[in-house]
Amino acid sequence: MKNILQREIPETLEGIGEIEPFQGAFTKLRKGWMEEETVPPPNKAKMPHSSKMCSNLKEAVIRTNPRNGMTVSFHHHLRGGDSILVETIKILAELGIKDITLASSSLTSAHEPILPYLKNGTITQIYSSGIRGEIGEAVAKGVMPKPFVIHSHGGRVRSVHTGKIKIDLTVIAASAADIEGNSTGAHGPSAFGSMGYAVIDARYARQVVVVTDNIVDYPCVPQAVTQNFVDYVVKVDSIGDPSKIAGGTTRITKAPMDLQIARLAAQVIEHSGELKEGFSFQVGAGGASLAVAKYIRKIMKQKVIKGSFILGGVTSYGVDMLNEGLFKSIFDVQSFDAAVSTSLMTNPYHIEITAGLYANPFNCGCMTNKLDIVVLGALEIDTDFNVNVITGSEGYVRGASGGHSDTASGANLTVVVCPSFRGRIPIVKEKVHTIVTPGESIDVLVTERGICVNPNRPELKENLIKGGIAVKEIKDLAAEVEKITGVAKPIQNEERIVGIVEYRDGTVIDVIRQVK
Amino acid sequence: MKNILQREIPETLEGIGEIEPFQGAFTKLRKGWMEEETVPPPNKAKMPHSSKMCSNLKEAVIRTNPRNGMTVSFHHHLRGGDSILVETIKILAELGIKDITLASSSLTSAHEPILPYLKNGTITQIYSSGIRGEIGEAVAKGVMPKPFVIHSHGGRVRSVHTGKIKIDLTVIAASAADIEGNSTGAHGPSAFGSMGYAVIDARYARQVVVVTDNIVDYPCVPQAVTQNFVDYVVKVDSIGDPSKIAGGTTRITKAPMDLQIARLAAQVIEHSGELKEGFSFQVGAGGASLAVAKYIRKIMKQKVIKGSFILGGVTSYGVDMLNEGLFKSIFDVQSFDAAVSTSLMTNPYHIEITAGLYANPFNCGCMTNKLDIVVLGALEIDTDFNVNVITGSEGYVRGASGGHSDTASGANLTVVVCPSFRGRIPIVKEKVHTIVTPGESIDVLVTERGICVNPNRPELKENLIKGGIAVKEIKDLAAEVEKITGVAKPIQNEERIVGIVEYRDGTVIDVIRQVK
């Protein structure tokens, strides 16, 4: 069958089951109350004054009674510095556990040592927001028996709530914790800020282990995860490489083209009609996206506009804007550097939020639903504005769905910033290899070679033209790019589906086929 | 059948269903994982940028589609000043809704205007931690068709988790909220401090309405309840009578007998072996209980002992001890005066906790499980140390289970303080009218007429004797009291059971029969 974006989707898939095709960003919501039932969180019980402390991670893992076919989950707040995921998988492999589903909120290059376990039946399926590097190449080449599932940050929470992901064991790395498992990422030698992605796992996992390199006096404050959800606590020497966990202040790009695109994007936002008193704002951390904040900050000061909240993955650049009074508050599901952790600790208007509050579509109103302006990147964008942020030009998995489709669906103004091509590879093109975010959620594309407005936003196009901004048809831009780069060689695929891309509501927006 | 405390309990009861008899404080826990399943919290969905604001409470109630047989819940943080519960019930009655189960975390004298609705079929069942005044008299006299259920604070959370209480609509009064429903009790003209009892309702209710007299700029900070759980928000002129919500500083009793009992209790604690560096502490807010804190504070200063945490219903006396550095932190499920709200707002070590974290027996470790010393009151205590805190000498319901059995079961040292008799009515006696907390959880009784140690704590008795404290057999004390007061006239009951007292694990520890 084909979904509404004309992507060929099977009705069922081994290792996944029945597949519901993507029907549009809000079709399931418009039906009213979601019909899919949620699953009950586990009941647990402990005798008073019993100890949760284990002498090492292996002991904790053994005490949780691991078994074949289990699902193990992790958060990715330690980013490129994480060592806990790999250590846990190694322990499970040593114990002879097979057929594990790995459900990390994302995967980074730090996790490449698990590669052998993808090949030998230890890990047979992955649920993740992102996959990169050698793992991304291996899974695209079909190394695993069951299809991997790419979900958005909000979609992951929905999956846990509805039992699509049934977590048997979650191992939560914390930069500070007490002996009962009250824990935080906001302070300690390995501080990483918000622990927003871990909270849903703590609530639903059959067994919850907190691992820290920093046991503090009871009680640990603040408490991102509280003791009533924690079964075991482990003190280890290190939860990872702090230099890769919090890499210092996130710097604005100096690449001239990124800066040019960012400047254009800021002009687009300025004239969009959305940059007004009390607006809310999210930008990605990388390349041109973060640079947009630099120009928006200038405009806000010039025009004396004060915003409501900054959302998302938070950089110290956002913290600066909070401290300058440009925004009233920050909602922080993930913090990108050490300065952010300090702000999170000390400023009551720098609010740590869970991934569910951030982006789960099926609750009474996630934060992304209240967002006015978001600036996002793209690996590819097609002439219907569909965006690929997951597969690279060779067809390997090398990105993350993250909050892309979550924020794009909720924001009043979704701006995609990217160069029109990279090297000889077109970015703006007729058909993207993989769709993560549907074009209906993208309002405007800003490239160095032109600005294109989604035809479903005619009033936005008018605003921009009134503001003196030249607007181009996206088909024209794509044709222009093709003239420069030539027609891109299509990626050679096998028929076999090795992964699916789940939209935030649980429907399937695209599949990923095995790369030849 | 008889439960383990020899109370006559029916196997089934109309309006309740099957009854599981009380088997001992930890029998269900010792079985390992609790077998009772929990229920799934609801899935909800809202379109982005949609409004939750209703122009008045009636509009909000109508939008939640009320129906016959529904369960409506409330928190009791507004105490004697609450007007929201009564207003909501009046609206439902006006709408012709019948057969309502009222599931308030507790009921106070402020709720007496609902009395007509108990008699006319509007409200047919009550779940509550406490019932008092005219309502307590009416329900004991059998005014309602279905038996009421008395639960502990921790037991209530368990009941909601396991679906024994299925909340259709919860109406949450807040002293500050924003238009999305992020809300708190910590500031505003009607500030009441912690909102700890409301959080479980917000998570599980099919419909959640936040009512406030104080809409603040988005976002409301701090956030006891977050927007992802809130369906509707209502601004009203008043949520109640602020003078009865936060009644100023809670004062220590000046009654000589209470002070005498409190002094004795402090001596008992001093020599118990539990008053040591890092101990944790909870006292009730009333009479002799709070006065014990005064003497403990002195001893802590003299002996230079620093405690870990204060737990519970928190008074400004507790806040003073925190500020003096006598304790490291306060965990606050319920705040008793305005000074407490200010501390909660400003001191990161004054931590707002949910009722689940406070006392639910079926999670990974509630706070009461970590408690070292608790001082509790009693309406009656029998020679097996079983305590009644729910029915008065006429048999009417005039108290609250509250956290009594929760803290008593978890604390290393549970001290009951009460006079041995009041007027001509014995308090210490052979058999109490209603058991709320089993004797096995009570370690020592302190009265003006003698101190009695539970025989299951021989080492405690030794410690006290070593400390020069005279210890009496409880049977001797009861006999002594009987000589003074004469034998109390037994309460005249009908056979009909009008209410049950649930132990925190969901078993039935006692029943309440209709008073003649």
Describe this structure as you would to a colleague.
The structure is a homodimer of 516-residue chains. Chain A contains 16 helices and 29 strands. In chain A, the strands form eight sheets. Chain A has a ten-stranded mixed sheet with strand order 3-13-12-9-4-5-6-8-28-29. A five-stranded mixed sheet of chain A has the order 14-18-22-26-27, with helices on both faces. A three-stranded parallel sheet of chain A has the order 15-16-17, covered by helices on one side. Chains A and B meet through helix 1 and strand 16 of A and helix 1 and strand 16 of B.
What is the quaternary state of this protein? homodimer
Mean pLDDT of chain A: 95
Class based on secondary structure composition and strand pairing of chain A: alpha/beta
Q: What's the Cα radius of gyration of chain A?
A: 22 Å
Question: Main sheet of chain A: which strands, in order across?
Answer: 3-13-12-9-4-5-6-8-28-29
Characterize the biggest β-sheet of chain A.
10 strands, mixed
Low-confidence stretches of chain A: none
GO molecular function (chains A, B): citrate (pro-3S)-lyase activity; citrate CoA-transferase activity
Keywords (chains A, B): Cytoplasm, Lyase, Transferase
EC number (chains A, B): 2.8.3.10, 4.1.3.6
Subcellular location (chains A, B): Cytoplasm
